[in-house]
Design brief:
about 400 residues, mainly beta, Jelly Rolls, 2 domains
Amino acid sequence: MRQRKASVASDIISTSITLAIALFLTVASFAQSTPTAWPSLTQEHDYVAKRSSSYDRTGGNDDWRRVAPGATITVLDTDGPGVVSHIWMTINDPEAWSLKKIVLRMYWDGEKDPSVETPLGDFFGLGLGDYHIWRSAMLSVAPDNALNCFFPMPFQHHARITITNEGSQPIDNLYWNIDYRIYPHPLPDGTLYFHAEYNQAQPNHGVVSGWTSNGDPKVLSLKNLDGKDNYVFLYAKGRGQYVGVTMSVLQNQDDWFGEGDDMFFIDGSKLPSINGTGTEDYFFGAWGFGDHPFSYPLFGAPYIEGDEHAGARISLYRFHLDQPITFTKSIRATIEHGHGNSRSDNYYSVAYWYQTQPHLPLPPLPPVADRIPALQPVGGPGNNMLPAK
């Protein structure tokens, strides 16, 4: 871990105020130019507010649905033009790792390939398969086990959202409220569609062996200019803008995991169009985070368990509402796993972006058993596991 600098309370307060102002201005700007974001509270609006929910159709209090193993339930099915403005869900599922076994999919305007396909927990930033409370401008998990999403999701003709139980036991109780707006006119030309892509590496494959620490000359001598072996958050083709990522890490090796730089390759560039300085820097922390979880509107490390040894677990997020990363042909959003991709930790991520349709088919989800976070026999500091048979 890097040596920490002393922090100054006034700097923290100033930074928080600056971020709050930037977020307010961003949202206000969106609201003035398009109906896909938070609407102005002082102007009249011509949409009709709607909601899809799991309420008891008999008028009773059984406001939930049961989802059998292998079954898919549709939680939104409506015609447009419209915009999904908020999703709330909570589940009661006794099965272990249910957040990894339940799959969320979203389809816009009759497409066959979903624009969103992720394990439910990962979509809401719970990439390690269990619950923790956290908050941001776009996603949050509130007490107790309440999942919330505020990404605007426009559609011109039709919207369909489904939940699939890929576990071996029923979901006893699935509750949802999905708020959306229906407009009497088409959405503006150039309105982009919401997408989310799940990826994982269990494990990442470190490019060196026999190293003893992040400061080992074998590690420090590595050079990575083209991002060849980087972990990939997102690869997309079309025209659009990347707006953020949630990422969770399970360390397979000792020492600080976060010496990897973020690298973005825009419109087919061979070298990074944007190159960062370290994992904690990309997620707007510094000096290794320590053991201090934090959550802000656009960035955070809300869950930290362990002390930079094998078995440590951490969840992170970064949203680019201040400046979405635009692309006109393609984007490859990546990050190193350790300096020069030296480390072999497990990464689980969901990238969020908007783009024109059609989109590339999303990468197929790994089999359920492979989604469950588990230490891997990769060797290296602190990893004394025998090779898998």
